Amino acid sequence: MRAILHSDLNNFYASVEMLRHPELQGKPVAVCGSHEDRHGIVLAKNTIAKEAGVKTGDVFWQAKKKCPQIIEIPADFSAYLRVSKAVRAIYERYTDRVEAFGIDECWLDVSESEKMFGGAQSIAEKIRALVKREIGITVSVGVSWNKIFAKLASDMKKPDAVTVITPENYRSVAWALPVEELLYVGPATARKLKLRGIHKIGQLAQTPVGLLSDWLGKWGEYLHAFANGEDQTPVVKRGEEQNIKSIGNSLTNYRDLTDPQDVKMLLLLLSDAVSARLRESALGKAKTVSVQITDADLLRYGKQGKMPLPSRSATDIADCAFRLFCDVFPWTSDVRALGVSVRDFTGAVDQMNIFTDILSEGKAEKLEKTVDALRKKYGNTILQRATILKDARLKKADILAEHVIHPENFFGR
Amino acid sequence: MEYEKVYVETIVRFACEGGMRPLAIVWEDGRRYEIDRVKFAERAPSRAPSVMPLRYTCLIGGTERHLYYEEEDRRWFVERKRR
What we know:
Number of domains of chain B: 1
Number of strands of chain A: 12
Oligomer: heterodimer
Number of helices of chain B: 0
Helix content of chain A: 25-40%
Radius of gyration of chain A: 23 Å
Distance between the termini of chain A: 34 Å
Shape of chain B: globular
Structural class of chain B: mainly beta
Distance between the termini of chain B: 9 Å
CATH architecture of the largest domain in chain A: 2-Layer Sandwich
Shape of chain A: globular
Number of domains of chain A: 3
Order of helices and strands of chain A: EHEEHHEHEEHEHEHHHHHEHEEHEHHH
CATH class of the largest domain in chain A: Alpha Beta
CATH topology of the largest domain in chain A: Alpha-Beta Plaits
Structural class of chain A: alpha+beta
Radius of gyration of chain B: 12 Å
Strand order of the largest sheet of chain A: 5-6-1-7-8
CATH superfamily of the largest domain in chain A: Reverse transcriptase/Diguanylate cyclase domain
Number of strands of chain B: 8
Largest interface: A-B, 14 and 13 residues
Strand content of chain A: 15-25%
Strand order of the largest sheet of chain B: 1-8-7-6-5
């Protein structure tokens, strides 16, 4: 049996900010994107703000309404990345098999090393104590024999705690939890399961696989295995940077957008930034585009779709995003925020395709690379799309520099 | 209790075999304090505002003092109770 740990840095961004601002101890704090031009969206909050009902993804003024004394701190991703790497170095004292899951979570496979350090639970306790002593922030560690239960365990007791799920106790511990606590059970799946009377992980585990795959397709089988502790996925040695599932940029415009032309313009601006980041990475081309829209009533819409062919050109991404936007947005209210992201990367090796005109594609690629080079040298606003020049304030927006890291649950949860 | 950080001028020796050791600090008023011994050097949080400093536990004139090093901007500081 394997010995897997899942370590989760508690309120990560907010905890790092508390190191920098110890005078804020005991006060509600929210870490926000840049506040100018209304981008101030809550990216993280400390426990006190959480108790007041502040949620990740709230616009800052919403958070302020829920919790008037709340203090806003601008996000500093380079500091978070530095701390995240230092914590990882602590994990690596116990095993070389560390898999990052986002910036603040990691799985550790200690099967080979647990005998050297007195067992998995003892390693978990040591890690918990070391992170607190050396860095000054807290972690919750889950211990189990598979990745799914280890993650489940780390979510059970927070902050600064170790929770163990064993083959002896999982029926009483894990099975008593609501299904949505299980990794990969999102809001949609949870709704489907609850409609069929499945509320607890235990009920999911005891539902026949056949039924589950009828309801949920291949995910039914996976979830059944997960709920029974039969997950076999290995802990892959992987860094924060390689673990990119999507690249996205979003912007809350300084004014609400009222017509499709404006939306098209902003989508192009965002796609430009996404495509530049995609070209900079080694991820190749993307197959899927998704848009997220928040309207003036703060209702959220989202849709994803595949591009006709994998691409990393800004125009292709923007065209697809605009099509998705037209499909999903009912225009009952004006558009406040827009986000574009791409996923399903093809990897560094390019697949040739008989339908594309390689010459013109090569030309477009060359052009965009040149634009990238110019922007790198003279700043992101040196070359701009003509459509964007119509709006003097938007012209100044420097999306690429502003949103270096895009939290995956930005709009969703 | 709130602490503030006071950056101090620090005389440091970099050994041939690697590593560094603070030898003395120069206080705000220009007085120089010799460090008799470094008892521990480890990563540890400070009570003053700082992200991941290195903490040197030093003996200065018979008393134990914490001297912190910030790798990011390569500066040394001590913590002081805010009055």
